[in-house]
Amino acid sequence: MIRLEFALRRKPGMSRAEFQEYWRERHGPLVARHSTTLAIHRYIQLHTLDDPINDALAEARGGMEPEYDGVAELWWTSPDAFAAFSSEAGQAAAMELLEDEQQFIDLPNSPLWFAYEYPQVNPTEYMVATAHSPLVKLFFCLRQPSTQSLDEAQLYWRTNHGPLIRSVSTGFRMQRYLQVHYCEHALEADLTGPRGTRVAPYAGHAEAWFNRADLMTMANVPEATRAMELAIEDEAKFIDFQRSAMWIGKEHVFIDRR
């Protein structure tokens, strides 16, 4: 299974609410209509919430990039499935999607990248932070310090930070946690070129699901406070906070063929 992550910023002049409404009501169904042609296995929109938790997460790390307005997340069963983009029908579908993206997305400032996921705390694969669920999904797209290579940062993240978070996950009251690591693929240039993408891809992202009430009361729970301190201390060993971003959102599922 391989994923495409597309972190989105809205076009200038649009409010976040207008952007998310167009994305959900117009673009989402369009992607679903072309999903068979493009061999898309899953497609989820993560809509950023306007919530003071976002500012608190960034402040705890000494400041971060502004949160994105949302993330489009797509899955394919394997890289071989990308052959669908080469067919005449696939090229036409991809062009129609790009033309619609231009209506609401600030494409040059919306990076995209391919990735593989590594489950860390994973009681169920069917956890979704829907609009009517008490769950929220935390999205943490990260870049490594200039002193580390991508491979070095990803190795530390996977072999040191992952076990640490697993050990303190109950203190966090974390429901699920995945590491999703950037991987290079030739199709990336075919997608970023027509979009004029100026922002470099991230080294990957962490995603975690929490009960929203738990996040709001975490500061009053000693175990959660200590878990947060340990996590941030270790994050600083492989993450450049100033070039990374973190926020919470709600998921809207359009395609799920699992």
Structure overview:
It is a single chain. With 258 residues, the protein is of the alpha+beta class. The chain has one domain: Alpha-Beta Plaits (2-Layer Sandwich). The chain has 7 helices and 8 strands, in the order βαβαβαββαβαβααβ. The chain has helices at 16-33, 52-59, 88-101, 150-172, 187-195, 212-217, 222-235; strands at 2-8, 42-48, 70-76, 112-121, 135-142, 176-183, 204-211, 245-256. It is globular, with a radius of gyration of 18 Å. The model has no long low-confidence stretch (mean pLDDT 95).
Summarize the SSE layout with pairings.
Layout: E1 2-8, H1 16-33, E2 42-48, H2 52-59, E3 70-76, H3 88-101, E4 112-121, E5 135-142, H4 150-172, E6 176-183, H5 187-195, E7 204-211, H6 212-217, H7 222-235, E8 245-256
Antiparallel strand pairs: 1-3, 1-4, 2-3, 2-8, 4-6, 5-7, 5-8, 6-7
Helix pairs in contact: 4-7
Strand residue percentage:
25-35%
In the CATH hierarchy, the architecture is 2-Layer Sandwich
What is the number of beta strands?
8
Query: Class by helix and strand content?
Result: alpha+beta
Average pLDDT rating: 95
Q: How do the strands of the widest beta sheet line up side by side?
A: 1-3-2-8-5-7-6-4
Q: Provide the gyration radius in Å.
A: 18 Å
Q: How do the helices and strands follow one another from N- to C-terminus?
A: EHEHEHEEHEHEHHE
Shape: globular
Low-pLDDT ranges: none
Helix content: 25-40%
Largest sheet: 8 strands, antiparallel, barrel
Total domain modules: 1
N- to C-terminal distance: 11 Å
The CATH class turns out to be Alpha Beta
**Count of alpha and pi helical runs:** 7
- How is the CATH topology named? Alpha-Beta Plaits
